[in-house]
Sequence to fold (194 residues):
Amino acid sequence: MILPETIIQIGSPELITRSNDVQDIASPMTRELVTHLQTLLAPNKLIGLSAVQLGIPQRIFIINVREPQPKGKDESVLRVFINPQILKESERKIEMYEGCGSILRNNLFGPVSRPDTVTIEAYNVNGQKFKLTANGILARVIQHEYDHLEGILFTEKVSDYKKLMDLEHYIEFARGNLAQKEAYTITILEEEFS
Fold:
């Protein structure tokens, strides 16, 4: 299978269409797609990417964020979500700036209010079902990527369009903001496999 090397951009009709369930979760084609998504994260400076962002309308996304580890040495953890379902969201919401690889080459950021904690159920690349509860940046990226599978872009959820900014201003004014840094911290991470 020949897989696209570029991330499609806002305006592409694929980005506003709901993705289809993956029929053969543990297939070599699914594994190849997941591996390909992974190779596109770092060069595009992303922490999450969905198959639909490559124009492939399959319910798959991956996330690679720094997560707390038992001995206090946080490390990046690649997580694969196939046919995910969000089971529960907290009533408490947090506003944070978001960007997207499909929005002007990741150069547009805006404030989005989302539930602080989320529980999601999905399959990993080995076809094993799991349930994960998280908050902080992990919950944020899960919800952002899940929206992609539903055909929703973060620009539809921006709380104040007057606060949109480009990458340079985001780095200067928003990324270092104390509230933003605190919201990034992952304090809940429960995972169970079935």
Remarks:
- Residues 13-193 form a domain with the Peptide Deformylase fold (CATH 3.90.45.10).
